[in-house]
User: What shape does this take?
Amino acid sequence: MKKSLGIIICVFLLCAGPLSAAEVKVGSNTPLSGKLSVYGEGFQQAMLLALEEVNAEGGIKGSPMQIVFEDNNSTAAGAVSAIQKLITVDKLPLLFGPAASSNFLAVCPIAQQNKTILIAAESAAAEISKCGSFVFRVFPSDALQGIGVAELTQTLKYDQVVLTYINNDWGVGLAEIFKKKFTAAGGKILDEFAHDEGKTDYRSEVLRIRKSNAKAVVNLTYIKEGATVLKQAYETGLKVQWLMGSASKSPKLVELAGEAAEGVIGTYPTFSQETPQYKAFKAAWEKKYPDKKIPVFGEYNYDMVKLTAKALRMAKSMAPEDLRKAMIEAGKGYMGVTGDKTFDENGDVGAVYGCWTVKQQAIQDYK
Amino acid sequence: MSYYLQLLLNGVIAGSVYALFAVGLTLVYGVFRFINFAHAELISWGAYLTLMFSSPPVSWPLCLAVIPAVLLTAFIGFSQDWFIYRPLRRGSPITLLIASIGLSYMLRNVLRLIWGSDLMTFSLPLARGFEFSGYYVTGIQLLMLAAALLFLMILYLLLTKSLMGKSLRATADNLELAAIMGVSMPKVSAVVWTLASVFAAAGGILLALDTNLEPMMGVANLIKAFAAVLLGGAGNVWGALLGGLFIGIAENLGVAFFSPGYKDFVSFAVIFLLLLFRPRGIFGLLTGVR
Assistant: This one.
């Protein structure tokens, strides 16, 4: 019995081999189980929608495109074993990376070493820019936020601010970019200081802000630290306009800081929902998944697959260097659902920023 | 000038909470001669248990919820000793140290398992602080100061005026000799662990009321307690108290001179300098528990 089963499997594999060779396969390192699986399913559906369209348009030079999904259990360790399988066993030259920047950062050196193209659709950490020449992303880097916040500050006509930021590479990097952009446009920074991550007492920091008599404070921080600072500033009756980034844009901030969060204004990366690309995507989504809402980052996953298909069509061969060049070429001026996907020298894309604010204890768009 | 005075005030209040942690830590060290890393978890457990008793399905008012929370934390502290440290006491101090690190991870992860890693809050209504001629202080901050004063006063009376206090000091001086002289070890150990746990829980609850709760809240504050303990000379209760105040004031006054992003630098620098130049602490002259 065992033997005959073995033979059947061998015959099946032999038959399957030549058939699938005609397909152009790429891999996807996706959180289908674990804590991110609530998002992972949506990513997968968006990718499959794009794949369907690619194949309906004739696939890649006449061959159908296929995505090999590998579950990463939402962990960095799972993402590493998934990428190793996709590279060494499936021998795929192009992969879609895992969600969550920390998981993505865990696998990007492996892709770079193996000269495998790795693309991110939802990882924002600025460090990803340093991953290497084979790593791309269709999601804007956090670093761009520094510019976004500087522009917001100027739009609101605050030319003198206090700048405070969380004391880690993300915060320091962001603050540097903000400062450059803001001071170049004539802005003045009255006081500037980092604050520690995870503290419970920022009262003396708040006091320093008060001492500067600033009307606005740029606070580049996370949710917990942001909420604590807002609360402790409120307690001392400090009245300033708080300007923040997207890392603190969360209902949790409002829950933790309560009334103290009222009136905060911040930026976050967004894209227009009025473009023909977005409208086409929305219509296609509603047709394929009539009962489902468009998932978080679904648009980015969709763009990633469509852009990859374009690159695969343009590539001279499936050799790493040819694919890399094709990715850069394909991105030039590519207008996806989420906007312009032209890659810079780090494989990053630009971004358009929207504004959020807290009104009546809820996060809303600021207009 | 008022800027520096307000910084000083903030420092005294932060320092009084550090002192609560440091005193418990140094008490355990004084008697059992090892640094209990799991002390950090008593801080967070105190806060989380209060949250448990004050939210559904129990939903007791906060002032009631703290009672079972503190008692349960004391029970955890006591169990630490009974089940883990007591059987290991004959081993080397390094065994106890490593056991306490392991226990710290375990307790923290049980906490994560029950309540998750996400931030929690007591959702107290937001209130403006009181203003006294330009100085700001909030109700919770006043409560911190009052609690620290009350607990340390009780400790003072206990150590100096009661027989238990005498036994405790005798044990801290020489554990074996005290036992030979008829001091009841189980009793002393119960008192030490109860005091340490109650102080830690009280500090944890106050911190959580002031801001929010998360599993790492204890660890973040333990390092300050370490610095305070070293500053006061390990095992010296009054030294730890002054040490806590010193650290609180130093890091808050430091904000005026350098970036607050390096606040922790103060406590670490204190640890290094003392270990290098004055391992007995700068308050070694004061007579403490020993």
User: Anything to note?
Assistant: The interface with chain A takes residues 3, 6-7, 10-11, 14, 118-119, 121, 123, 125-129, 131, 136, 138, 207, 210-212, 214, 216-217, 220-221, 252, 255-256, 259-264 of chain B (CB under 8 Å). The first helix of chain B runs from residue 2 to 32.
